[in-house]
Design goal:
Blueprint (H helix, E strand, L loop, with lengths): L1 H6 L2 E10 L7 H21 L7 E5 L18 H6 L6 E9 L1
Length: 99
């Protein structure tokens, strides 16, 4: 919602939503999941009257984690899943000018 408010009254050329996942799951599954996450953000922005033609949605899968190697050690557990939370995200980049 904050992003939508910031986009109102802004001259922007493109909005890029990039989905990411944690390391659990296959690379193929995570790629598809990251794309679905980005599309969900795009759909929300479109529902808030941001033109779909200005929004690009893409996925990076598990290839760009925020967590560092060795930071969230172990197999799937509540603790490790919580530790990997920062990797499960959608980054939104806006290119344009604000008046």
């Amino acid at each position: 919602d904050d992003l939508v408010r910031q986009l109102k009254g802004t001259t922007y050329e493109v909005v890029v939503a990039t989905g990411h996942t944690d390391r659990f799951g296959s690379a193929k599954y995570n790629q598809k999941l990251s794309v679905r996450r980005a599309i969900a953000v795009k759909d929300y922005l479109v529902s808030q009257e941001i033109p779909a033609s200005r929004i690009d949605a893409k996925g990076k899968g598990e290839t760009q984690p925020i967590t560092k190697i060795g930071e969230c050690k172990g197999a799937i557990s509540v603790k490790v899943i919580a530790c990997l939370q920062p990797d499960r995200r959608v980054d939104v980049e806006v290119q344009g000018t604000k008046q």
